[in-house]
Structures
1.
Amino acid sequence: MNTLRTLGRKRLLVAALLATGPLGAALAQPASARLDLSPCKLPGVEHGALCGVLKRPLDPAQASGRQIDLHVAVLPALARNKQPDPVFFFAGGPGQSAINLAGQLSGVLGRFLNRRDLVLIDQRGTGKSAPLICDARPQATLPMAEMGNASALKRLTECRARLEGLPHGDLRRYTTTIAMQDADAVRAALGAERINLVGGSYGTRAALEYMRQFPQRVRRAVIDGVAPPDMVLPAAFSRDGQAALDAMFGACEKERACAARWPTLRADWRTLLASLPREVSVQHPLSGVTERVTLDRELLLGVVRAPLYAPALVSGLPAAIDAAARGGRFEPLIGLAWTVVGNRNLQLAEGQHYSVVCSEDGPQLEAGAGDAPGADLGDTYAAMYRGMCRTWPRGEVPADFYRIPQAGAATLVMSGGADPVTPSRHGERVAQALGAKARHVVVAEAGHGLLGLGCLRDVVFRFVDAVDDTAALAVETGCAGSVPRPRAFMPPGVAAPASGGAR
């Protein structure tokens, strides 16, 4: 059916949309599983979209009990004769809204839209799907004095009590396992026999769980920045963040211009840490208000960790650390951090975030599982989650959830070597567990998330578009080895050596 013609209709039934597809009326769903789609406009999406709501039980064990609205958006393929297997994108976090990323994804994954629909689901607890949002204010606008663990624990405890009073406030019902049952219900309502999965960050855990529960429904899978189910997220944060921080110092020492400008950078960093806590005056990067803040180790490490996600921001860390350590100016560091913290696309539904992490990672964290902390980053993140998860309601997680399934369809695993949260050590282990149908691609100098890299976008498209698994696994990925690490940023007035700072 012509999608452009379809967009002109006032109201659509997905069953009718796909009536000319290979499944036809045979996959007509019962009334309770019908997904009504209507034309909608999503910010940043050039072409029209289709939006709708699928009713789902809050508690899967009580199918006729309380229902929640699962919000779905479809970016339709432009071709008259489109492929029958859409691309489902699973967002990160946990806590991100996939639909809020529609504008960004229409560019990053836009090539798929020539012949495949792109399906975005606001996972339960996120976006408009029974949202579990703690504070309407973006976190980036909070006073810096409220960014520490103690303030966060107080705020989240109050939030939990409020969320539990909502009609959908049974916080045990937001696990990844239940969310992937929702995703398969969307697949069924769309009439697709098989789908292609693309997941980023926490979305890779979601994709792996979908593959475990519904292997026969997966045609192809791409997981970018892998957070496996047995990772113990809060414990891994410290080790992986420390490795990325150490890599930044090592890169500066190998780059002639950086080493010449900041020859004692690593020692200056240690001196800065040793000087804490101390009172400092800093200007809030969004409000412009100058605040008097007690800068402790926890706050400084959080500020430094945020830019490590993106190599372009990492390039500014040597100058920013020097300004703080030698000049007592913390605005450069805070400005880099707020480039990440202030990104609206990265805002999380904190209630859903803790419902997932406390259910899935909390028991292992309390049992002492996971990685040893990094030398500088220490136990800060794990302690925060342990404190919050002591009282946060936990959903039931099946034992098999922690088992990485052997892939039944070709799966592309992608990792950034400089990623501070899901580096290649996780991707390598997952690729081995997935078996012969998995291929691991590592971009040594990339940070968190590779879908935005031009050459990798093409790899992902050709991988999914390949006629069969053998062809997909044979897709050329050599461009991954040619992505360079950005050179250290040199403040104005600082001349680099004539060689250009070659390593």
2.
Amino acid sequence: MHTLPLPLARLAVFTPFSKLSDEQLILLSYHIEICHAEAGSEISPMGDSRLEELFLLNGQVEIQSEKHDVIMLSAEDDRSRFSLLNVRPSPNQIISHTPVEYFLLSPEFIQSLQAEYSPSDQPLAEILANEKSHPLVIKFYRSLLADNISLPALPEVTLRVSKAIADEGNVHHISTLIAADASISARILKLANSPLYRACQSISQLPEAIKRLGLNATRHLILAFALHEQHQQLAPNWIRKRLLRSWKESIQLASLCYVLAKKCTKIPPEEALLAGLLHNIGELPLLQFCDQYPELANDPDYLDQIIQEARGQAGAMILHRWNLPRSLVVAVQHADTWFYEANGEEATLTDILILARLHSLAMNDASPFAPNIRQVPSYEKVSPGALTKEQRLEILEDAKEQITEIKNLLNH
């Protein structure tokens, strides 16, 4: 099961974050990795010298002072709105009384979030970017944080279907909602009857198609099919061309992600397909912003640099607002981080996305700056097959028909 991002309202409960804007809270959520501890575990030793602050999300802990005084504290208590490492008297030892969830943050990062900013001087823009960022990237983040750029909304059909699945999971009700969109209905039926699902018997009704695909797969696929509309906005011709290129790239990547997930991991292939389609959704607000700079139309290389630097963070903000699983948010955020390395030995969506991007670039000879595929951490976590000039990728070569089938479904 993939963990959803922490709701912004839950983060705002903690006193250091109570006055932060929604955009700041979204940024905060990207830096949080939830830790788990069983009952009786030592979370923080006496005189802990760590540099992070510790915040309790769920469960109950015992805080024991140097004088052996014990305080019982649960996540619902008022004092849990502060860092547990600041509970007095100190120094103290923190032991989980029940299974608990908590997270750690550096004081410097918290102070950066709390710093006041104005449209002309926003520390957050510099946090999202870095000292080597293009000036336009910093301007983009400033506009984004000042709400001068609108992020795309979750497609309406996806919103309705997701709510129906969460509320009741009634297949006939869900099929009625999907049937309101003839294009998506047709593609759901076509996919359910395709060789991808080894269909031995043809079906013609949406309820049967949903049962064959499964509710979670249906939800992911509906969003995937609805995304095309996000790339059809009114814009100057040069931006429309860039949007069309972006959509074609996402279709290619989604196909590769689907096949890699299905053949090499336990991750649902529909979820990997969605990650591939979403990997560059951050380009939508970026291109909306770049519309103010028509000179970029004549400098596509510079435009590509700007987009590659900022689309991951912008895309993660969009997916967080859509309340999509954290695994998808993280994958999109780090799609351009070749040497990203998640904790654990199991392959993640991020691993699949990074590997699929490298395969795609190698197949198209598209980037001389991409690293050797065998050098990235994701390579060892996803069964890679052979990749040479003579034999690109055995797994994907064997799956050409599947890739073509997926591309046809997404291109309509």
3.
Amino acid sequence: MICKTIVEGTTKVLVPVPPPDATFPPSAAAVFYNPEMELNRDINVAATAALVEKLLSRKGILREEIRYADAFSASGIRGLRIAGEVGIHTTMNDWNLDAFELIKENIRINGLEEKTLATRKNANVLLHEKKFHIVDVDPFGTPSPFLDAASASVQSMLSVTATDTAPLCGAHLNSGIRKYAAVPLNTEYHSEMGLRILLGACARELARHEKGMSPLLSHVTRHYVRTYLEIIPGAKQADRTLKLMGFSIHCPTCGYRESVYGLAVHIDMECPVCGTRTQIAGPMWLGPFREPDFCNETISELEVHPLNTKDKAKKLITFCRDELDIPMFYDQHVICKELGVSATGIETLIEAIKAYGFEASRTHFSGTSFRTDAPIDKTKEIIKAVSG
């Protein structure tokens, strides 16, 4: 296995060089390493550091007692960065023998023998065997088969990445139903649909272990969904969490959408705006997908760490922080195409919506997406007016 040395943050890591004729270099290498996920890992360092500060403020918890599990380590880069840059003990696990040997070598290179443990186990076995304050599930593909074990193991924060966006977002409908026990719809807001389907799957798995959750930070970036969930133990907290589950109603004709809370609900078949038969997605998470205070704490941590993607990470988290808590977003270009008008600047549109007395905000999902509490017919009226 031919390797090269790369540096992320303050961590030096050996990573495999993929064959020159590989069509998708990261997956073609002997041990998976994707340089495109550096933004993900930079945010992970800052968010984990923010959570650790939260834990340290509680009585009886010391930094050296905090345990982090990187269940799918590959080269070990994520876990090594947490151990070296956040300063907490990290277990790095991978079933692949080449990955296991590379992890041990990277531990030695960084002098992190006392702060790390390398294991070679099935991820579910590791997580059923031990409890960890922070569990990170970042597999190649769907995290669904590992959410039960992760929910059993985690005590403080569950971090999850899903790269199977086609099933999550409704493009591969049956696959999404099988993997997440929910119906996703492939709408213009499919990226948010995928995020809320994933959050809903996590909420249900945690509830089975009598644990509630509060999303601290979640984002959808290119080909993946990422979320950081604070764990709140107790049956009552699990019940509280499930009250934020529900279904999303979508009208494919006029774009009307509505959220209905609950796991056993009554939904009208016809759209109240245009009378078209509605479509239903869910069950999914309908609550907030981030905490503004935690976003600010993560941004503060970004400032103090030497990170290559710092500016991009700050911009992304700021957009997440400032979004309204209203599922689901609208896409300005989709509405403008329907109306046959030209799109104006997104900030101009948002200010116009606010001028009509409604709430509105941009989102992190795309440059043309926005949230508002204005009804769909009123939103279209405002867009027509702004477009002149």
